Fold this sequence. Notes:
Elements: H1 3-16, E1 23-26, E2 40-50, E3 53-65, H2 83-103, E4 111-115, E5 119-121, E6 129-141
Parallel strand pairs: 1-2
Antiparallel strand pairs: 2-3, 3-6, 4-6, 5-6
Helix pairs in contact: 1-2
Amino acid sequence: xxxxxxxxxxxxxxxxxxxxxxxxxxxVSMDTEKKTIYPLAHVNVLSSRIGQDVxxxxxxxxxxxxxxxxxxxxxxxxxxxxEIDNLNTCHAILNYMITKIxxxxxxxxxxxxxxxxxxxGIMLDTNMLDGWKIEITLSIPNNEMTVCCEx
Length: 151
């Protein structure tokens, strides 16, 4: 009956140990407070399916704040901001998380069923955040509840 807690904590722990992550949040609304220390990892559940195993689909964002220099850059490719750095850092965070989940054995038998491609978010919703989003599907055995049926 607590498969959701276990899967959510499983993701949180894999992000907690990721290099460079300073803040981890979850839920529908993303933490964009000025006091937030970036890079930020945000977890949101998208769906669940019940059967012999319980399946959860999670959306995970890794985001960093865009800094724009007041000094004009002569290099039009790089520009005068840290967009490239943000994308690189956030890609590394999600790469670390997925690799760790794939390699670790866990006592709850949580397994990755599917991993989406990483999708970039550039100045996400114009709140000056750059990064990547990934969807992962996790499976956990549905063996914590017994149902007695009388005929």
